[in-house]
Structure formats: C-alpha cells, structure tokens
Amino acid sequence: MDRWEREGLRSANFGMRNQVDHILDTLAEQRARLCEVQQQLDTVRCTATSTDGLVEVTVDSAGALTDVRFTQDALRSTVEQLGRSVTEAGRAAVRRAHEQTKEIIAPVAAVADAMPDLADLVTGAPSLREPLEFETTTDRTIPSDSN
Asked: Which domains occur in the chain, in start order?
C-alpha cells in the first residue's frame, strides 16, 4: 500500500469518525428531547362534545378515556342515542389527541429521519432503520410487526 492509499484511508476514516460523532451527539440531544416529549404527552388531554350536546368525553394522548360527562338532557335520551353520542364524542376526542400527539412527536421524528443510516455510512452494513420502523395507531406510535 503506497503513501497515497494510506492517506486516502486515513481521510475516509476521519470523515466516518466525524459522521459517527455527529450521530452520537444528535442521539444525546434526542434522548434529552424525548424526556421533554414524554412529559408533554403525559399532560395531553383532549375533549370533544357530541353534536347533540348530550355528552362530553376527554381522553389522554394515548386515546384512553379519562372523563365522561353527561348533561341533564342526556338522562332523558334513549339508550341508543346516548350510546351514539358517547361514541361520537369519544372518536372526536381520540382524533384530536392523535393529531396533538403527532404534532408533539414531529420534531423528534424529523431529526431521526434526517440522520444517516448505518448502511449510508458503511458499504454492505445492515440498515438500522428496518427493525425500527414505526406505524402510527390511535393508541401511540408503536413498533410495527414486520412478520
């Protein structure tokens, strides 16, 4: 191996180390940011009222029911109507919670998407994104089932 080849390898090694250092710095920042995101998600509460005004439903960021309130008129409605009103208000509250959760998570997801994958840095290396791809549900962002 001649001097130029060694210099080329050193230069490539230095460049790769810089990229890895950048990734590690970004990961450290993201870890701190994830704690903030989790705190924000823990405080999310979304409320919706049925169009007939009989029911008000509140859910958390995961879409879990935290409160249901009925008006006096709800007591005079039919069981079927009350059921439809609860369902309608619940679905609307879950949609709002899902939208708010996506907004809170978006900055973290954008940074993660912008980071290079291991396969981008090292020829022939496996992708680290494949086992970590996520799908969004009404509950939360969860690892997808790749089977």
From this structure: 3-116 (3.30.1310.10)
